[in-house]
Structure formats: structure tokens, C-alpha cells
Specification:
Length: 475
């Protein structure tokens, strides 16, 4: 016999009915809990990352000297450059046939080189006269890129011819930033910092910022290439503000004198201040390293679009390109860590040694051309370029008088930028004439080997004159 519900007594309030939660309500509640916890985790992680980054940029007296502000603006600069690279890779390089892309990149490099070839002899004297406006000069290079990125975003969306002019403006302003920033670094060094240590920290900051920014830019580019460019424009605007807020002593030119690179240890009877043989050899060696880097960046990028069967790579070509680029980034960071931790007394030997290593590895990879040797080549190029630049910094700090050190830094950056562009043009030229990867690598190895012979010959023949008693490269 079925149980009957007990009759409710008259006047007794009825028990409230238990509401049943619908599927939509349950999903909304779960989503709310997940989003709340995710937001909390992001907040904690972001706060931890910000605190760690700020501790890194302000360590060792960098916060008091103003170097921390330069590190922060350089982080935004590198993050913006990474976003531009992501957006251009999706428009200029990967979305057009290889033959068309080669012609476009060649034109792009020529247009990039021409302003430097014309302006390079004038950059040094201009910076010497513009010393009291370094903050505004640095800020101007960032502001120009912010404007060009915004124009680029519209040009990409509308497929406008303004694309190339805006892209050229971005690249030239980026090179100018490297020159102007280098001239400002010596003015805000903490007391316990050497120039090598400061540049190592700047390099590490830029590498970390680029690594963080690239995935964000890739996500924005998934919506459309123009969104990655708008993201870059915002980064450059923030960098512009940080540049203007640099300490006033960045503009100071007290005690500085211009330097004439035509008077380099070969004729000390000329008027002016001569540069020592060690610095000259460092400049020449680094020019060879940058030439090789520019060549491999362009030549290997086109080669790896359609990897030859001899490489033994059967996967996605983009993944292989990422492995090679990642290897170069790893080598660069490794070189910075080695250079900043090793208290070498002979940087003049290091610049020669890394150039020799570069030539040797390129020659071996030309013979044993496989995907894994290309990754090793990327690591080697990044490592040698990083160590070579840090060694050049040490030589400039040790052998160049303080009153001309800033001017010397600006001119060395100009030379290295030009060397990279020339190497890129050689890479485009060899690819255009259908040189095989082995032929291309052997060709550039022969060119850099000849340059190495020139450097060694001149190093032996030129007098080792000095303009002052050397100081220790590391104090």
C-alpha cells in the first residue's frame, strides 16, 4: 500500500519549495567561479612578475642613477620591435611567393641602407651638437615609430602603397634609436657598474621583453596584422614618455669632446684624439660579425621557407625557422651571461676569437648542411655576436678617453648597423641568383675569411699607439 503524504494541519505554513538550478544557471555559476579564480591568479602572477622585473631593473644602484628608466624604455622598444616583426612576417614575407618576397625584401634593404649610407657620416657630428637633447632624440625615434606603426596598420588593412614608406620609417627610426641610446648609456652608469655590465643588463631586459611581447603580438595578428601594429604603436608611445622622463644628466655634455674615426692609430701626429689599435680591431671584427648575421638572417629565412630534402627535415617549415631563430636567441642570452660574468682582461683577443669561430662553424655547416647543424649555427651566431659586442664595449671603456667615449659609441653603432644591412643585401643577391644553401654559406664564409685576414694583417702592421694609460676593463 503506497504511503500517503501527511495532511497539512490547518493554518500551518507550507514548506518552501526547493528551487531547481537550471543547466544555464549552473554553467554561469561555474564560469563565474573559474573567471574569478583565473583573474586572481593573473593578478598574483602579474604582481609577482612586475615586482621581479622592477627589482632587476633597479638593482645595483640602477634605480638611483636613472639606468632603470632606460632599461624600462628599452623593454618597451624591444617589445614594439617584436610586434612589428610578427606583423611584417605575416605580410611582407610569408604571404607572398618566394620570388616576389625576395624582390620586396631586397628593395626594402636597399631603401634602408641608402639613408644610412648618406647620413652615417653626419650622424656623429649631429649627435655631438645635439647632446643637450638626447632625451628628446631618443623619444623622437620612438614617437616616429609609433606614428609609422599606426600608418602601417591602415596600410595593411587597405593594401596601400604607404606600407613600404611607413615600414622604412620604422626601420630607420629603429636604427637611429640604437645610436642615440648608446650615446646616453655612459651618462647614467651607477658607480659600481662598468659599461659592459650596463649593456649586458640592457640586452637581457630587451630579450625578456621581446620574448613576452611576441606571443601577445601573435595573438593580435591572429585577428589581423593591423592589430599587432596598433599594439606596437601603443608600446612605442609609452616608450616615448619614458624617454622624456629620463634623468636630466642624460643631456649633459660636460667634459665631452668629439672624436674623429679617420685618426685611428695610424697617424698620431694629426690633430685631435686618435683611437687605439684594440678599439679599431674590435670595430672591424664586430663589423664582420654583423655582416655574417645580416646575411644569415635574410638568406636562411628564404632557404627555410622551403627546406631542401638534404636537410632531413620532414616537419613544418615554420617550426624549423622557429628552432633556428630560437637557437640564435639562446646563443645571444648565453653570450650576455658569459660576458657579464667573466672578468676577461683581454677583450681584444675575444673579438678575434669569436670571428674565427663564426667562420669555422659556417664552413662546417656548409659541408654538413642538415637541420640540426643549422640550429647549431644559429646558437653560434647569437653567442659570437653577443660576446663580440660586449668585448667591443670593454675596449671602448678601457681605451677611449671619457670625454670622447659617448661620441665613439654613437659612431660604432652606426658602423655595425650598416654592416648588418650590407650582409642582408649579399644574402638577397645570392638567393636571387639561385645559389644553393651550401654555395651561399661557402660564399659568405669566404668573404668573412677574407675580412678576418684583413683584420689580422692590419692588427700586426698598425702601431699599438695609446692616447692614455689603460685602465682595467673590469673594476
Amino acid at each position: 500500500m503506497e504511503e500517503q503524504d501527511e495532511p497539512q494541519a490547518p493554518g500551518q505554513p507550507s514548506a518552501p519549495a526547493q528551487p531547481t538550478e537550471s543547466g544555464w544557471a549552473r554553467s554561469a555559476r561555474i564560469a563565474g567561479v573559474v573567471s574569478t579564480r583565473t583573474a586572481r591568479a593573473v593578478k598574483v602572477g602579474g604582481t609577482t612578475a612586475f615586482t621581479g622585473a622592477r627589482r632587476f631593473t633597479h638593482a645595483g644602484g640602477a634605480g638611483e642613477s636613472g639606468l632603470s628608466r632606460l632599461l624600462e624604455l628599452h623593454a618597451f622598444n624591444t617589445a614594439g620591435d617584436a610586434a612589428i616583426a610578427v606583423s611584417l612576417a605575416g605580410t611582407l614575407f610569408f604571404t607572398v611567393p618566394t620570388d616576389d618576397a625576395a624582390g620586396q625584401v631586397a628593395l626594402f634593404l636597399v631603401l634602408t641602407m641608402l639613408p644610412f649610407a648618406i647620413v652615417a657620416p653626419l650622424i656623429g657630428p649631429f649627435l655631438d651638437r645635439f647632446r643637450r637633447g638626447r632625451r628628446w632624440a631618443i623619444g623622437a625615434t620612438l614617437a616616429v615609430r609609433a606614428f609609422c606603426c599606426w600608418v602601417l596598420a591602415g596600410a595593411v588593412a587597405d593594401e596601400s602603397p604607404a606600407f613600404y614608406f611607413a615600414a622604412l620609417g620604422c626601420l630607420v627610426a629603429s636604427k637611429a634609436y640604437g645610436v642615440t641610446r648608446a650615446s646616453a648609456v655612459p651618462r647614467i652608469l651607477p658607480a659600481e657598474f662598468t659599461l659592459v655590465k650596463a649593456n649586458s643588463r640592457i640586452s637581457l631586459t630587451g630579450t625578456a621583453a621581446g620574448a613576452i611581447s611576441a606571443p601577445i603580438a601573435i595573438g593580435a595578428a591572429a585577428i589581423g596584422a593591423e592589430w599587432a601594429l596598433r599594439y606596437a604603436a601603443v608600446l612605442f608611445v609609452v616608450g616615448t614618455v619614458l624617454a622624456i622622463l629620463l634623468p636630466a644628466r642624460v643631456d649633459s655634455s660636460e667634459g665631452e669632446k668629439p672624436v674623429d674615426l679617420s685618426q685611428i692609430a695610424t697617424n698620431t701626429k694629426k690633430k685631435g684624439i686618435a683611437i687605439t689599435r684594440g678599439v679599431v680591431n674590435g670595430l672591424r671584427s664586430n663589423a664582420g660579425l654583423r655582416l655574417l648575421s645580416g646575411f644569415l638572417t635574410i638568406f636562411m629565412a628564404f632557404t627555410l621557407r622551403e627546406p631542401p630534402e638534404s636537410m632531413g627535415w620532414e616537419g613544418n617549415a615554420t617550426i624549423l625557422l622557429g628552432l633556428v631563430i630560437g637557437g640564435a636567441g639562446f646563443g645571444n642570452v648565453l653570450g650576455v651571461l658569459i660576458g657579464s660574468s667573466t672578468r676577461s682582461r683581454k677583450p681584444q683577443n675575444v673579438v678575434i676569437a669569436v670571428l674565427v669561430l663564426d667562420v669555422a662553424v659556417v664552413s662546417v655547416v656548409a659541408v654538413l648542411f642538415t637541420w640540426w647543424t643549422c640550429v647549431v649555427l644559429g646558437v653560434t651566431i647569437g653567442l659570437c655576436q653577443s660576446l663580440g659586442k660586449l668585448s667591443l664595449d670593454a675596449l671602448i671603456q678601457n681605451d677611449v678617453l671619457e670625454e670622447v667615449r659617448t661620441s665613439m659609441f654613437a659612431r660604432s653603432e652606426t658602423l655595425l648597423q650598416l654592416s648588418w644591412v650590407i650582409g642582408g643585401l649579399i644574402g638577397i643577391g645570392l638567393f636571387t641568383i639561385d645559389a644553393s644553401p651550401r654555395q651561399g654559406l661557402l660564399g659568405i664564409a669566404a668573404i668573412v675569411l677574407a675580412w678576418l685576414a684583413f683584420v689580422l694583417t692590419r692588427a700586426r702592421n698598425e702601431p699599438a699607439s695609446r692616447t692614455h694609460e689603460p685602465e682595467e676593463a673590469e673594476r
